Amino acid sequence: FYSPPLICQLPEEMGPCRAYMPRWFYNKQTGRCEHFFYGGCGGNSNNFKTLKECEHRCVLPGEAHDKVQCQKTV
């Protein structure tokens, strides 16, 4: 059973300011990093500038991307 770090369990938090900064947060309900807009101040530590950074901190290795089945045989 994987439990992400505590910062990854914090809720999405835009903060009180009104900037419109694209960021990523870990959604503990879905187990994925998801896009949101950060206001530029306040908020919490579950706030990453890139998807890669969010996945590195919060997602179990090997589970970061959807698994797809290959349709072509070799």
Automatic annotation (TrEMBL):
Biological process, per Gene Ontology: venom-mediated perturbation of hemostasis
Listed Pfam families: Kunitz_BPTI
Location(s) in or outside the cell: Secreted
Major site of localization recorded for this protein: secreted
KW rRNA-binding (keyword) present: no
Native species: Laticauda laticaudata (Blue-ringed sea krait)
Molecular function GO terms recorded: serine-type endopeptidase inhibitor activity
Keyword hit for Secreted: yes
Domain BPTI/Kunitz inhibitor, residue spans: 8-58
Protein name, UniProt field: BPTI/Kunitz inhibitor domain-containing protein
Swiss-Prot/TrEMBL keywords: Disulfide bond, Protease inhibitor, Secreted
InterPro entries: Kunitz_BPTI (IPR002223), Kunitz_BPTI_sf (IPR036880), Prtase_inh_Kunz-CS (IPR020901), TFPI/VKTCI-like (IPR050098)
SUPFAM superfamilies (alphabetical): BPTI-like
Gene Ontology CC terms: extracellular space
